[in-house]
Amino acid sequence: MSAVALALATNPGGYLLVLAIVLPVVGMLLSLVAGGRNAERIALALMPAGLGIALVIAFGVWREQAPLVYILGGWAPPLGIALRADGFSAVMLVTAALVVAAAGYFARPLFATPPQRAEARAPLAFWTLLQGLWAALNMVFLGGDLFNLYVALELLTFAAVPLVCLDGRPETLRAALRYLLFALIGSVFYLLGAALLYGSYGTLDIVLLAEGIRAAPVVAPATFAAGGLMTAGLLAKTALFPLHLWLPPAHANAPAPASAVLSALVVKGSFFLVVRLWFDVMPGLASDAAMGLLGALGSGAILFGSVLALRQRRLKLLIAYSTIAQVGYLFLMFPLAAGSEPWNGQAWNGGVMQALSHAFAKASMFLAAGLVAESLGHDRIADLRGIGHAMPMTLFAFGLGGLSLMGLPPSGGFTAKWLLLQATVEGGQWFWAAIVLCGGLLAGGYVYRVVAPALAASPLDVRASPSRGREGIVLALAIAALLLGFAPPGFLGLLQVGRAAIVP
Amino acid sequence: MTDFLLAAAGLILLTVAVGLARILRGPENVDRTMAAQLLGTGGIATLLLVAAATGVRGAEDVALGLALLAAFASVAFVNSAAPRQDDDP
Amino acid sequence: MTAATLAGLTGAALVGLGVYGLLVLAHPLRKLLCFNLLGSGVFLMFGILARKGGAAGFAADPVPQALVITGIVVAFSATALAVALLLRLFETSGTVTLNPDEQRPE
Amino acid sequence: MSAADVFTVVAVSAGAFFFLAGSVGLLRFPDSLTRLHALTKADNLGLGLVVLGLLPQASGLLGGLKLLGVWVLVQLSSATAAQVIAQALGRRRPPP
Amino acid sequence: MTVIEILDIGLAVLVLGVAAWTIAARELFAAAVGYVAYGLLLSLVWVRLFALDVALTEAAIGSGVTGVLLITAAMRLRGTDPPQASEQLRPMVRVAAATLCIAIAGVLAAGVLMMADPGPTLAPDVARHLGETGLGNPVTAVLMAFRAFDTMLEKVVLILAVIGVWSLAADDAWGSVAGPRPLAHHQGPLTFFAQLLPPVGIVVAVHIAWVGANEPGGAFQGGALLAAMAMIVLMARVVQAPAVDRRWLRVVLVAGPAMFLLIGMIGFAVAAGFLAYPDGIAKPLILFIEAFMVLSIAAVLPLLVIGPPNRPQAGPP
């Protein structure tokens, strides 16, 4: 059977993809009906189950060395909708399950229903929205249809925006509203692009579109317009420089577990779709100039985000600006792996590894910052002297996360940046290497700014020490980022499952 | 016959548009609310005429829906223009 | 010129108008109105696809029509959420500006 | 042209005329309240005649009933709207 | 040029004119009213495109429900427009923005003019498989069968939006009645209207939801009209909105997507898989799901319009 025929039929194990999406949706609906403390119980109970499903999917993709496919309702595309999991989807599913679970268990004391009440506003909203967000992410990673992915993107936005302003302060409301407007405009542009593609090829299915574009004697001009519009919309949602303005206030003012999920996963959702677009929908159309532009914007993000991170006075804002910089690295994979260059697996692996390691590292750092803010009542960097002695485990986790951002061994960030560097050498595109190295140095600077004074022996008034369990969660995430640095070759092979079918 | 119905639809749309231009300018919100009301009636008439002329099925249901909603803008306006309980002296 | 082409051109112009309003209007409710104009322009683009895809006894391709219906629902939910956010912002701070410079300094 | 068609032409023309009259009234009358009255009267008559004219063209009994339903609903809506708008006007500007 | 072409051009000019008006209007309220008019005109355009299902949706949502939402918001935000001088743009920026927008619109217009006619279509595929669903309305078949997953998730989007709106409540207002503080005045004619209209409206809404299987209409349009009736009685204060923590309200909210999911999962056991319907009983199953969806939509839309609970529980002031 041809690769296209394989992508249009359900294969064994495909039903797991349905479960990965339906489980959190059911959890969300049940949580809303059951209400009160049950919302928290349901969410926390489903997290291990969801992680299990994600792991089984990843194992299935790795064992078969081929994508899992499920045809919904038995209606094959172009009429119906397919769900597909390639290697990238599989690792993102596992990452999302791990980070969501970590944020969930971390959030328990923050979003517990007060004992004297049957139900309270913030806890109910948090636990239902968290599950909704998780479902939306899984949909983004598995969707095989551009309009279905539009619905997934909107679901993601609707779950993410209210999480920003759960505390109801004007600053957070303003940040949430700005975030919402950016995200909505981004999705409309995405939808417009999808319309143009349907008008040219009569399908919204990713595999069929790629096939149609490849088979067309002359590529319709609308295809390029669609690519541009969809990319622009998705970049606004990913907060790629210079469309990053909404991100720092939103991510820095949200409650810590929400910040962790937003920075680690939500921006990756729209990035994932940019990758889908240029590597799966229109792999042959990625011109060097367009991919170079994406790389240049990424480079701008790395430098700009890092420099601004160096200048922040609040810890959470520093971490938020660092997200802008780290998102920039993701876009270096476009000039290196797409475009006219021969398929460059190292650049692809580097980009994916960056997405994974940043997810764990950034989640760990935001949660660490949350613990610091809870213990001190503030997160002013100038007043963090001595925090390393008061909360050694938290600071250690923060430092490990920082290691990954800098790209120092041993860490997933190191592997990612090393692979990207190797790809620049192979492709002869040296200038990107300078950006990677420069960004590493700047990251070193802003991490040092926090860690060095924190290690000073200085008395610090700590209101309440965090629980061991929550510090453990923060450390576990940092260790996950570290362990990615020891990923065996088989793991890197998993990342490329599904590529062979697309790239001849 | 078809052309006659379409011409009538066009004429009604035109008169409604002229009225619309006059009252959307205000000066008061009441005038503007009336603009929405006017367009509702004229829009339904246009819809029915166009549907009859082009033979599109199910237009009566669209008209019914629009007719149900005809007073919506006015009611919403009056509703939110009324003072709230705690504004009362 | 057919009704479909005309609707498509209207859609294109609406997209332009919507983006213009989003760029130059400061009030969040105005931006939201423009978002809806932009959205309906995009839906009209689907409309021309539907009409030009009329075949097999259908006056219009049903698939883009179904997508537009879903799209209208999603756009409405987005508007409702944004309006609620905006009203809450107004209630808590007395202003509706989105300008971060007017946030209190940290 | 059949008798039904003649009926349609006459009734729809009359309807369009009332719409025209309503808009002219709108441009000529000085204040909101009189405009409101001119408008609702003319428009409802206009819509009523259009509906009447389209009845012979309706698809079956149900279609005709729906057309009449549309007219009744619009009557009800615009009467209510006129009333509540007039009340709102009165509340803001008490009569001298 | 034929009459219909003149009419189409006139309609397009009117749509664009009203759209431009909503952007240029000086006052917030004027812009909101302009949008209501715009929504109505747009549903005429959809009738001209022979997309009656969309026209119904646009009439109910675009003009009706969104109109109420925007008008109410504009009234509550009186005095916030025009913005401070600091937010006024320099003319150069305006010109640059206009240039960009004309470029975007130009590219899209070129795309429209170059589009193949007849264009690519899935209509034959829909026609081929329509029989398997037992439905006569192809749009309903796409929404409820071929792309049922989208439709189910769209209902989840609505529920997430409700949670998002409710999450904006003040902490001490949780558990109280949804929506802002009540109005002081009950208006005689409004109350009468709100008692008379809903029975008629319910009949129309159920009719439109029911015929949706074969004619234009369907669960969403019917549900939206039902929601409109709920909004009328809420605005006229004939009934009060329910408190947000009522269990029955939560059940009604999730009923649509939950039933969709449940029957979808049953498909694993008795049909071709998730969201597949067993042969022969697809139509009754779809109508069964739609009944629950109508209920959920009728509850969700008014809740989204009236906003978060806003009355402290301590008791009336």
From TrEMBL, chain A:
Keywords: Cell membrane, Membrane, Transmembrane, Transmembrane helix
Membrane topology, as annotated: Multi-pass membrane protein
GO molecular function, one term: NADH dehydrogenase (ubiquinone) activity
The keyword Cell membrane is annotated on this UniProt entry: yes
NADH:quinone oxidoreductase/Mrp antiporter transmembrane domain sequence ranges: 144-442
Subcellular localization, as worded in the UniProt entry: Cell membrane; Membrane
Pfam families: Proton_antipo_M
One biological process term in Gene Ontology: ATP synthesis coupled electron transport
Gene Ontology cellular component list: plasma membrane
Highest taxon of source: Bacteria
TM segment ranges: 15-35, 42-62, 88-111, 123-141, 147-166, 178-198, 218-247, 259-279, 291-310, 317-339, 359-377, 389-410, 430-451, 472-495
Family: Belongs to the CPA3 antiporters (TC 2.A.63) subunit D family.
The name this protein goes by in its record: NADH dehydrogenase
UniProtKB/TrEMBL annotation, chain B:
Cellular component per GO, a single term: plasma membrane
Keyword Flavoprotein: no
Localization terms from the record: Cell membrane
Superkingdom field: Bacteria
InterPro entries: MrpF/PhaF-like
A GO molecular function held by the record: sodium:proton antiporter activity
Entry membrane topology: Multi-pass membrane protein
Keywords on record: Cell membrane, Membrane, Transmembrane, Transmembrane helix, Transport
Transmembrane feature ranges: 35-56, 63-82
Family: Belongs to the CPA3 antiporters (TC 2.A.63) subunit F family.
Record-given protein name: Sodium:proton antiporter
Source species: Reyranella soli
From TrEMBL, chain C:
Transmembrane region(s): 6-25, 32-51, 63-87
Entry keyword Transmembrane helix: yes
Protein name: Na+/H+ antiporter subunit C
Organism (species): Reyranella soli
Family statement drawn from the similarity comment of this UniProt entry: Belongs to the CPA3 antiporters (TC 2.A.63) subunit C family.
GO cellular component term, pick one: plasma membrane
UniProt superkingdom: Bacteria
Pfam families for the chain: Oxidored_q2 (PF00420)
Membrane topology, as annotated: Multi-pass membrane protein
Automatic annotation (TrEMBL), chain D:
Classification via InterPro entries: PhaG_MnhG_YufB
Molecular function (Gene Ontology), one example: sodium:proton antiporter activity
TM stretches of this protein: 6-30, 42-62
Alphabetic keyword roster: Membrane, Transmembrane, Transmembrane helix
Transmembrane helix as UniProt keyword: yes
Keyword Protein transport set for record: no
Protein name: Cation:proton antiporter
Source organism (scientific name): Reyranella soli
